[in-house]
Specification:
Helix content: 25-40%
Number of domains: 2
Oligomer: single chain
Largest sheet: 5 strands, antiparallel
Shape: elongated
């Protein structure tokens, strides 16, 4: 699944005031650079965990309905079309979360015309990680699909407002902000020292989405 951000978060997990308090900066002369560092720290932590923090809206794009190896087995050699070795999955995983809600699912045909996939056709499971959209019992995925970018899932993700972001994630951001503020060249290169790297990753580890 490919992702496109359509509505950015309204705030950062750590405000400029909070960052300046930790950095012990009282003047406004460096507000711009501190703001950039906050965004860079958030981007680093989001990439590492595979999650997004403050509420934002995304589109997830698929070329087709998901498939999986067909059930059953056989001995020896069997001649059959390659397509028959697979069957349609009844759920789609959304590898960006935590997913709060799914706003819509739409399919696109060869002319690029969008068709809504009614909410009664699917169930959203956001209790697991990654979240998934599962077909209702008697439903099937759309079939009139163009070859690429044929299914669009619009969803809202994030822990909520800044106050809802877990404290250990914020602490990891504080470590990065303090380090990059004191080492501007490291921030520009996107590097961190081994000691900071270990502390940041240790704080973020329990929030990391790992696919097996």
């Amino acid at each position: 699944m490919r992702f496109k951000l359509t509505q950015a978060p309204a705030e950062e997990p750590i405000s400029l005031v909070e960052a300046k308090a930790v950095l012990r900066v009282s003047s406004t002369a460096e507000d711009a650079i501190i703001t950039q560092i906050i965004i860079a720290a958030r981007n680093f932590c989001e990439r590492y965990t595979g999650k997004v923090f403050v509420t934002q809206t995304w589109e997830g794009w698929l070329d087709r309905a998901p498939v999986q190896p067909a059930r059953g087995w056989h001995e020896g050699i069997e001649e059959r079309p390659i397509s028959s070795a697979y069957e349609t999955k009844r759920f789609i995983e959304i590898d960006k979360g935590p997913v709060q809600s799914v706003s819509s699912i739409k399919s696109l045909n060869d002319e690029g015309t969008e068709a809504a996939f009614e909410a009664s056709n699917y169930i959203v499971d956001n209790l697991r990680t990654p979240a998934r959209v599962a077909l209702a019992r008697s439903s099937a995925w759309p079939t009139d699909l163009r070859p690429i970018n044929a299914i669009k899932i619009t969803f809202v993700a994030g822990f909520g407002a800044a106050a809802a972001v877990p404290q250990d994630i914020k602490q990891a951001m504080y470590l990065l902000i303090a380090h990059w503020f004191e080492n501007r060249e490291a921030m520009l290169k996107g590097t961190i020292t081994a000691e900071i790297d270990f502390g940041v990753r240790d704080l973020l580890q329990q929030h990391r989405t790992v696919r097996l």
